[in-house]
Amino acid sequence: MDLDAVRAFVVAADAGQFQGAAADLAITQQAVSKRVAGLEKELAVRLFTRASRGVVLTIDGQAFLPHARDLLQAEERAAASVRPGSRALRVDVIGRRLAPADLLRDFHRAHPETPLDVVTLFDADAAVAAIKAGTIDAAFRAVTRPVRQLPDGIEAERVHDEPIQLLTGPRHALAGARAVTPDQLAGHRIWMPGIVSGTEWAAYYEALADTFGLTIEATGPDFGTEPLLDTIAESPGLATLVGQQTRLVWPADDDLRRIVLHDPTPVYPHSLIWRADNPHPALTALRGHLRAAREADTGAGTWTPAWAR
User: How confident is the model at residue 36 (pLDDT cuts 50, 70, 90)?
Assistant: First the structure.
C-alpha cells in the first residue's frame, strides 16, 4: 500500500478539503487528488464525497481512517527504530567477565544515557563477519593481521593493553612470589584448556610461548572456569595465565594467587573493530572514550606479539 497516498487521505480527512491537505503536505492539490484516487482504486471503495466546501468521508472512509492512522504511526515507529542514535549500540565483548566488558562498563558509566546491547560472539572471524553484515555495530578483539588486510570498509583501532598474570595454587613453586618474569615460567606447566586453535587468543598465547620458551598445554576437555580454578588450587605443578581484568571468583580455602609478570609485562592487545560507514553517534562517542583512556596507558616494559604492533 502506498503510504504517501494513505498520508494524503489522512491529511485531507483532517483538513476537510484537498486544498488544505495540499498546503500541509507541500504538494499540489492535483497531486493530493491523484493519490487519493489511486488509494480508492486499490481499496475498491470511495473514501470521500464532494461537498460545497470541500470533501466528506464516506462510511468506508470513516471505517478506514483509524487504520490509516495506525499505518502511518507504524511507519514512524519503524523509521525511528533504525534512526541513528535511536536504537541501542550493539557491541561484542567476547566474554562478560573479560576486560572488554570492563571497558564497555566504563563507557556506560561515563554515558549512562546511551543504550547498549551487549553480545558475545565466538572469535574474531565471527565478529568481523557480523560487523560486515551489520548485525552488530562494533567488537573488541585482538587483530592478528594488518588492518589493511581486513575486509573493505572494516576499520580497527588498538584501544587497550591488558597485562597478563600468572595464577597458581598455594602449593605451586612460584606461589610465594610477588612478581616473576616471563623467562622464569620456562619449565613450569601452564594449563589453558580454553585455547581453541585458529582463534586470536590461541595466536597470542602461541606467540607468547614461542618468545619465552613456555610450555602452554591446552589438553583435556574444557569444563569451564570453576573446574579449572579447582584444579589449579589443588595442583603443585600446574598454573594458568589470566588477564589482569578477568573477573574470577573462587572459594576462600582455594587460596589462589595472582602473580604479576614483569620485565617485560606481556599485554593482550584489545582493538575495537567497526564499519567505516556506521553512522551511529554512540559509536563515535565510544571510540572517543576509548581513545582518551588509551592515552593514559603506558607501553614501557611491555610485550605483545609482532602482529599486534
Answer: very high
